[in-house]
Amino acid sequence: MRRLALAALLGALAATSLGAQVPNAGGDSAGRPLRELPLRPTQPLRFTTDEGTWLSLDLSPDGTTIAFDLLGDLYTLPIAGGKATRITSGQAFDGQPHWAPDGKTIAFVSDRNGSDNLWLVEPDGSHARQLTREENRTFISPTWTPDGKYVVVSRNGAGAGYNLFLYHRDGGTGVQLTGAPTAGAGAPNAGGPNAQPFPSNYVGAAFGPDPRYVYSAVRTAAGGGYNQTSLDWQIAVYDRRTGKTFVRTQAPGSGMRPVLSPDGKWLVYATRNDSLTALRLRDLATGDERWLAPDVQRDDQESRYSRDLMPPFAFTPDSKAIVVAHHGHIWRIGVPDGAQTMIPFTADVDQTIAGAIKLEFPYDDSSLVVRQIRNATRSPDGKRLAFTALDKLWVLDLASCPTSTTGDAPAAACRPRRLTTASDVGEFSPAWSPDGRYVAYVTWNEREGGHVYRARPDVPNGAPERLTTQPGFYDKLTYSPDGRRLVLARGPREQRRDRDELGGNSAEAAGVELVWLPATGGAATVITPVTRFGQPHFGPDTGRVYVFEPADGLVSMRYDGTDRQQHLRVGSPGAQQNAGPQVPPPDEILISPDGDRALVQAGTNLYLIYSVPMVGAVAPQISIQNPAQSQVPVRRLTRVGGDFARWSRDGRQVFYSLGRSFFTYDVARADSLVRDSTARADSLRDARRAGAVPNDTATRATGTRATRAVYEPTRLDVTIRVPKDRPSGTVVLRGARLITMKGDEVIPSGDVVVRDNRIAAVGATGSVTVPNDARVIDVSGKTILPGYVDVHAHIWPAFGVHRTQPWEYLINLAYGVTTTRDPQTSTTDVLSYGDLVETGDLVGPRILATGPGVFTRDNIRSLDDARDVLRRYSEFYHTNTIKQYMAGDRKVRQWIAMAAREQGLMPTLEGGLDFKKNITEAMDGYSGIEHTLPIAPQYKDAVQLFAKSGVTWTPTLIVQYGGPWAENYWYENTNVVDDPKVNHFMPRHEIEKKALRRPGWWAPSAYSFPLFAAQAAKVVAAGGRVGLGSHGQFQGIGAHWEIWNIASGGMPRHDVLRVATIFGAESIGMGRQLGSLEPGKLADLQVLDRNPLDDIRNTNSIRYVMKNGRLYDGNTLAELWPRQRQVAGLWWWKDAANGGGDQQR
């Protein structure tokens, strides 16, 4: 929750006494600008290497010395080769060195103050000084103007591509060279009538003898990205006199990283030669071209190119050769003959890294405390609380519950009770009638659809009344203030079968309407069609229905949909790339009952707009980006976060939930405390200025946000403890080959004894003790291995109104995936789904998740901010792991890693197509890296870092970074559309949407996932960890596609299976519970008809799947042990229109 600190209030007085100051960007806990990175790593990383990955280099003007970067340090090397000398060190990532024309200074890019900036250093490493002072920017390939006065560099902007900037070597804020701010440069078709559309990206500046012209690679699209069907970079010339850009190449494989010879005769640039990256040599006098080097470093044009599209290289002063790095080494290539000579080097790497955060989490077999209450709402008299938990409706008598601000355990009498006894439907969206006599709610069942009901909370186990006449898809209930009507959203029942939620996506909102129906039941009356929308509610005019729509803001209308009025829009820049910490656009706006104030949900935080001004026909737009600078008084109410926000009926309180905690924010009480504390702060400040009290006394009295809170809302932790599903009995799987994943152990013929839900014994047949009452199942000739652990599994079955049995869970389990971890769920629905699987109400894999990712929208500007944000996961969501999703520059990412370590969380991260970022995050202690490391090949420096740091790299080659998605390959080379098992468990419309027609086609040579898989093999061979991640691209069999993708790079099959099992379990802190066949571990395994050690494709020969000790048929998920029963049918299995059993094909 938001803590309103006395110190923060001091800075907000000029704006409003109700505002709160946002800490300085890039500051420490006290708001001071950072001068160095905040992390203090302790783990040494030392080795010597004679090869390096993506070596950016430059040659001194006299041709004697090479400067290059290696794992974030700068080195110099004699042109003849030998021992490299490290000239910069420390945890900062220093890179992309470029010599000044006089040879006395090297420009480079460094994040040593927390953000990327330009720095200058002397060739011996002395006198480093900062040239730029930017936040949340990326600088690419600095070079010097020929006169040595300026550094020219590619720099990005918030939400924009890269442009060229000039920075004077003695300082200044810089001059933008290309792009709209430059006169003449932004004109359409600059460069003449036949020119291409004006470039939006300029990368890798280069000069020849004439300083008037700047060569670079340009692109008209946003630049970078994945799964590209075309390669669009070309070499262009920017005229510094006219401001015009002229494109000079039309290479089908792009034109990248131009370098000009000092004599002005030659241009060398990179392009694709089929699937390889090569260097082209152009005679500038004639325009003739030839191949100079047919196979060099693979370019980065299919990713984020954060260190240029190609590693910078250089001509020798005599223009007779270039010096370039490729295939891990440094080479001299003759011009024009192309003869290559290696320049050997060795370099000592001496880094200090944080070491990956590695934890082990306990697992309680017997029971769980429900992690989330949803849509909690207080009764009008404030005495009871209604909410959904475990997809059922509950009521809690608040009189028996003490409230606190610390979340202490509630009294024994403070126990919720079910409102109904229904077992075959989910119950959602509770709403109290104004007189408190009824709770109305919606239901959902996959086979019958949904209805609206109401029930009497004072009648235990009373029969609910159905209020709707037709089944449908209902959500977002609210009573009218007079209690005569219910307002809600309604959609076709069929849409819920095909789609996820009402109002979640405008493209999927066909037939969705806002309706009202009599409070006693009857036919619904349409108010208006809707697409994306929030919770219907009421303001001061009880004849008008208010609702938030993202396109129009807060609007209202009469019950017949007429007289539509727009009341308020809330502005924020949204999640812009490179914009740094920021507030996201609103997800919900709720007008107060008196109509004067508005409650805003933006991301996971709540904001209160204290006055909604009436300004005329056009609704006002209020910014909440910085409450202290908003147009009207605004306060951020939460800091840790808040979900499911509501107003009290009198508008004096705001209610919200977080996990299983319910909060009451007393607006009037908070206002009073803020006024008092502001007055005290003013008095102390005046006294300090007058010299009446020492400065340190005033500082101690005002405190900081971390230690002194003005107001805390009351908190009630709702405790519902329920038993977990746990089978009873002993079963023996006898005679199979056992790939145990205990080291390299393979037992040719063995037995697995399972007691209840855990493995009791594993060993060669006849060597283990079998209880007399055990059921023995003969699996001779088959292969048993652990269930797969998919640690990057986006499943997302449905939000809001939940499914009664997600088909996504069934198909994953049927394909042997017994544990999933979703790294970034967008919403918190997964908390309830995961609990329901644990209780046995749903059949599926173990559902673990990070919850919603940590983004720039979490507005982290200090270590204390990071601590607050991560409390959401450690204290309330109990996710154990989190995902940092490109949440800011390096200092922000370090703060998040530091807070995670403090709070016992394992942080993984979004790879983001940025190899440099991935390197720094491996250094900074992150537990995991999600997605492909986009640079290949990798050599000893990178491989050693990723192996020795302890980070688990999950490459998700199925959605590869750095090349076409491997997913496309499997659609082209397998017939998944007609696969009987897929059609049994996946809705036909989902199959057709994904696999019948797809955009894009790639020749076999264009697929690069085997190359990137080979890098994963190197990391594993070096002792590192790689994980399995199917990314939710094609549920179930997609995990096998990813296993086969990983195997395509030459990794030994046993190691591939370790990736799919034990490595994944260890990466999420479950290595002592899952991932191998060992006594004491949870009984998650699979029985295959064929041996995957012979052919990795045999992973898809599943006969049986066991999860938590229950044995299922691999084709139908009929339970075979200890119960004998069919899985609950999916809706299309009995739909005659879809073929009567499985679906029409």
UniProtKB/TrEMBL annotation:
Please give the name of this protein: WD40-like beta Propeller containing protein
Organism, by scientific name, is Gemmatirosa kalamazoonensis
A single GO molecular-function term is: hydrolase activity, acting on carbon-nitrogen (but not peptide) bonds
Database matches in InterPro entries = 6-blade_b-propeller_TolB-like, Amidohydro-rel, Metal-dep_hydrolase_composite, Metal_Hydrolase, Metallo-dep_Hydrolase, WD40
Task: Provide the organism lineage as a comma list.
Answer: Bacteria, Pseudomonadati, Gemmatimonadota, Gemmatimonadia, Gemmatimonadales
Q: Which UniProt keywords apply?
A: Plasmid, Signal
Task: Show where the Amidohydrolase-related domain sits.
Answer: 783-1111
> Pfam families of this UniProt entry?
Amidohydro_1 (PF01979), PD40 (PF07676), Tricorn_N (PF26549)
Where does the secretion signal sit in this chain? 1-20
Looking at the record's lineage, which domain of life comes first? Bacteria
